[in-house]
Amino acid sequence: MRKYEIMYIIRPTVLEDDRKALIEELNTIFTSRGAEVTKVTEWGTRDLAYEIEKHKKGYYVVLDVVSNDEARIEFDRIVRIKESIIRYLILKDER
Fold it and tell me: Fewest beta carbons within 10 Å, which of 10, 26, 54, 65?
């Protein structure tokens, strides 16, 4: 099990209820596979550094996760499929 810091950006056009359901669904990917989500930080809607898919803003979410490879790989697969996610980044947390 390794520590990861994951950030993803949700389209600004996604409604609040759908956004909360999406965040919960993505957290469940880890918890259902034996990993632990230690911290969820919602930064909220912020300006993007550059336009992504014609969006100038996005809703930022940061996760601190202790995960195995299976859960991380499944998260990566699901996030690539979700059209609501416009960018994501997975970093090993070596602190």
Answer: 54
- Mapping DSSP onto H, E and C, the string for the chain reads CEEEEEEEEECCCCCHHHHHHHHHHHHHHHHCCCCEEEEEEEEEEEEEEEEECCEEEEEEEEEEEEECHHHHHHHHHHHHHCCCEEEEEEEECCC
Domains, the chain, in order of start with CATH, read: 2-92 (3.30.70.60)
Contact between 6 and 65 (Cβ < 8 Å) = yes
0.85 exceeded by pTM: yes
Tokens of 85: 């996610």
Best CA proximity match to 61, nearest among 95, 69, 82: 82
> What phi and psi, each to the nearest 5 degrees, are found at residue 94?
-105, 25
Q: Please write the tens of the pLDDT for every residue from 3-26.
A: 999 999 999 999 999 999 999 999
Q: How far apart are CA 49 and CA 63, in angstroms?
A: 21
